[in-house]
Amino acid sequence: MAARIVATGKEHERLRAALIEAMRKTAADMPAEEILAVVSAFVGQLIAMQDQRRFTPAAVMQLVQSNIEIGNRQAIDKLINEAGGHA
């Protein structure tokens, strides 16, 4: 079964904000590439925990890829739209 698309809601945004806050508190001085490595390993663990009766490995990887692309686009848009920002 393919992963379904779910519009981002308030609960999703609260989770994202809480994760960002936790990273700021515990890894304030950690280089960005190290944070990326840790978070990527965590995503790998989340992928491994998906119910294979509901989702194929390809569907899970498509879900991850699509959301990485969305997050990247949001970050770039934010940089472009900030005063003095550029991407």
* Oligomeric state of the chains present here: single chain
> Which runs of at least 5 residues are low in confidence (pLDDT < 50)?
none
Proportion of helical residues: 55-70%
Radius of gyration: 15 Å
Question: How many individual helices?
Answer: 3
Largest sheet: none
Which whole number gives the mean pLDDT? Answer: 91
Strand content: under 5%
Tell the overall outline. globular
The N- and C-terminal alpha carbons lie at a distance of 37 Å
Specify the structural class: mainly alpha
Please tell me the total number of domains: 2
- How many β-strands, per DSSP? 0
- Reading the helices and strands in chain order gives HHH
What does this structure look like?
The structure is a single chain. The protein is mainly α and 87 residues long. The protein folds into 2 domains: 7-49, no CATH class; 52-87. Helix content is 68%, strand content 0%. It starts with 9 loop residues before the first helix and ends in a 6-residue tail after the last helix. 0% of the residues are buried.
List the topology elements.
Blueprint (H helix, E strand, L loop, with lengths): L9 H17 L5 H17 L8 H25 L6
Question: What labels would you give this structure?
Answer:
mainly alpha; 2 domains; 0% strand; 87 residues
Question: What is the compact description of this entry?
Answer:
With 87 residues, the protein is an all-alpha fold.
